[in-house]
Amino acid sequence: MRRRSRHHEGEHENLERWLITYADLITLLLIFFVVMYSISQADLAKFRQVASSLRAAFNLDVLQAPPPGQSVMTPIEQDPRFTTYLSVRAQVASLFTRLGLDRQSVEVELTSEGIVIHLSDAVLFPPGQAELRPEAQRVLDGIAAIVEPLPNPVRVEGHTDNTSPPSGTYPDNWELSAMRAVNTVRYLTDVAGLSPQRLSAAGYGEFRPRASNDTLEGRRKNRRVDIVLLHPAVGNAP
Q1: Could you point out which of 56, 148, 209, 236 has its C-alpha 20 to 30 Å from the C-alpha of 199?
Q2: Can you give the pLDDT at residue 91?
Q3: Residue 93: phi, psi to the nearest 5?
Q4: Residue pair 230/147 in contact by the 8 Å Cβ criterion
Q5: In whole angstroms, what is the distance from residue 72 CA to residue 41 CA?
Q6: Where does residue 143 rank: exposed (0-12), middle (13-18), buried (19+ CB within 10 A)?
Q7: Per-residue 3-state assignment (H helix, E strand, C coil) for the chain
């Protein structure tokens, strides 16, 4: 009887050992989830810190989704000058379409100085010349109609590529670009009716290129007249 009782006691002890292993497993799982939770909280804190720093640096609500159905507008899109730029760009595109001209001959750009209308020289002048083509009148009449209601001062700039003017025309690109700018201003004021007080002319020769003069396409892009609608603050600066 004594032996049987010891045998039953040993059997009972062996059956309960699995509880120790189970308890260890539960403890390890608990530690694992505690560590994971701590990491997630640290990452969340870092994310909030980065978001706060970006908001302060750029004065923007970044990393934040807009309310449903509402789009996010950048500061430049909220600037009234951007709205004017979009309007001018659309009107110029419509003008060239209406006149049946190549849309690649014109480009409208928003810069720190103002709204720039880039006109290819081929639209306005014969090669190497500064006298306006007869067809240029329709283009400049349309540009004047777009510019006239706006308050911006206007600077007309002549630009060339790095190829010298044809022999017997102009001594250099400085004079060619300046005369093209002057003749454009004269038409805009004397014929199209823009106020002379708003306009100025400048010739930059080949020294303000938009593209490389090493390629035919680059030189074509550089031969242009720019009509710059200056931001009022720029135009009124002393």
Answers
A1: 209
A2: 97
A3: -60, -40
A4: no
A5: 29
A6: buried
A7: CHHHHHHHHHHHHHHCCHHHHHHHHHHHHHHHHHHHHHHHHHHHHHHHHHHHHHHHHHCCCCCCCCCCCCCCCCHHHHCHHHHHHHHHHHHHHHHHHHHCCCHHHEEEEECCCEEEEEEEHHHHCCCCCCCCCCCHHHHHHHHHHHHCCCCCCEEEEEECCCCCCCCCCCCCHHHHHHHHHHHHHHHHHHHCCCCHHHEEEEECCCCCCCCCCCCHHHHHHHCEEEEEEECHHHHCCC
C-alpha distances in angstroms, 132 versus 6, 7, 80, 86?
A: 121, 119, 34, 28
| pTM over 0.85, yes/no | no
- Average pLDDT of the residues of the chain: 82
Residue 209 phi/psi, 5-degree rounding, is: -70, 150
**Within a 10 A sphere around the Cβ of 122, how many other Cβ atoms?**
16
How do residues 115-128 score in pLDDT, each as one tens digit?
999 999 999 999 99
Q: Which CATH class is domain 75-235?
A: alpha beta
Sequence-separated (6 or more) residues with CB below 8 Å from residue 171? 165
On whether the CB atoms of residues 74 and 64 are closer than 8 A, the answer is no
